[in-house]
Amino acid sequence: MRDWKSFLGATGILVATTIGAGMFSLPYLFGKSGWLAGIFYLLALGGMVTFAHYLYWLALERVNEKQRLLGLVKAHLGALAFYPAILSILGGLTLVLVIYLILAGQFLKPILSAAGASGIFGFWALASLPLFLRIRRFAIAESLGAILMAGIVFLVFFTSDLRRVSGLATVHLENLFLPFGAILFSLTGWTAIEPMFELRNKGGLWKPFSALALGTFISAFAYILFILGIFGSTNAMAPDTISGLGDWPAWKLQLLGWLGLFAIWTSYVPIARELKNSLESDLRVPASWSFGVVLFLPLILVFSGFFSFLGAIGLAGGIFLALQYVFIALVSKKILGPSPVKKFLLNILVAVFLLAAVYEFYYFVVR
Question: What is the pLDDT of residues 298-334, one digit of tens each?
Fold first, then answer.
């Protein structure tokens, strides 16, 4: 019984970490690229991240979890890799906060239609308040956020008319690569590996690969339910999904708005604190400066007008998160000295994520 509780608890940690704001970009991208392309990316990237998570787990096991990802990069790949790794992690965390602020503005519209920029500012102020408090962990907030996200999925799916799901193209070749970054963003959960590892060490004999694969599968399945529910609810596909639901009943929109606001608030807080702690511990930034960066940089980026929801998702997933998985693969390869087959698969993983980062940079920055 204890093993099952530990196994389910670890799987739940991965699901809670994985399911998040990225799912609101998926219906639009499935419509743009075609359902077959979207399903292919979900399955292919789901398999890739599960493989990367498993190897990272084995690497932590080999070093007895004495170091985390940044420490492992510095110890095994050198200082030249350490600073790009810092940039990819800090840049990714910052863009996630930007994404949440953009989403907050959309969730507020059904509740306060005239909120506009003031609504984003109000959410930012409320979400930033816990940074002033001396609270060490927000694990409960992460779990609550996952429960509320699940509530959104069930609300959308079970109140939709699935008979409306028709006419979705199989593949649009001109947009074939468009979903990569957003789907990677939606499936990313490597930060859950360390707490899962600790939970197993406290009393569990289950196989880690099973928990990692199941957690990723549950997340992907939840995304499919959400996508089907959206296509069964509206014909107007918006990049952030929410702004295309204008034909929903007012009560349903308001309930979705409240659920969404609470869900992203519970995620914004721990991510902001993680960014602040990373600046202070990894880059030795003074506390007052790190506090100012975390507090104001996401807000400045949102109101700069440079970032759209889809653009921020693409950059975060396609560049910063792709590079994070490159570092995970390289560190695991260095520590484990894997078999020829695993080494070949790792090299493919590194090549895919590097090519994806180059493409996303071209698509969202250069083009």
Answer: 989 888 877 788 888 888 888 888 888 999 999 988 8
Q: Which is nearest to 225 in space by CA: 45, 48, 19, 32?
A: 19
Which residues have CB under 8 Å from 350's CB, separation 6+? 326, 329, 330
Q: Which amino acid does the sequence have at 13?
A: I
Q: Which two tokens stand for residue 154?
A: 């069930």
> 112 and 119 in contact (C-beta within 8 Å)?
yes
Find where tokens 């743009």 sit.
Answer: 32
Distance CA 265, CA 270 (A): 9
Residue 194 and residue 67: Cα distance in Å, rounded?
10
pLDDT band at 136 (very low <50, low <70, confident <90, very high): very low
For residue range 24-63, what is the model confidence (pLDDT) as tens digits? Answer: 889 999 988 888 899 999 999 999 999 999 999 988 888 8
- What's the CA gap between 347 and 329, in Å, rounded? 8
Q: 137 — alpha (psi -120 to 50), left (phi > 0) or beta?
A: beta
Residues in contact with 4: Cβ distance below 8 Å, sequence separation at least 6, in sequence order: none
Amino acid identity for residue 97 in this structure:
L
Buried b (16+ CB within 10 A) or exposed e, 305-333: eebebbbbbbbbbbbbbbbbbbbbbbbbb
State whether residue 146 is helix, strand or coil: helix
Query: pLDDT digits over 263-275, tens only?
Result: 788 778 778 877 8
The domains of the chain, with CATH numbers, are: 2-366 (1.20.1740.10)
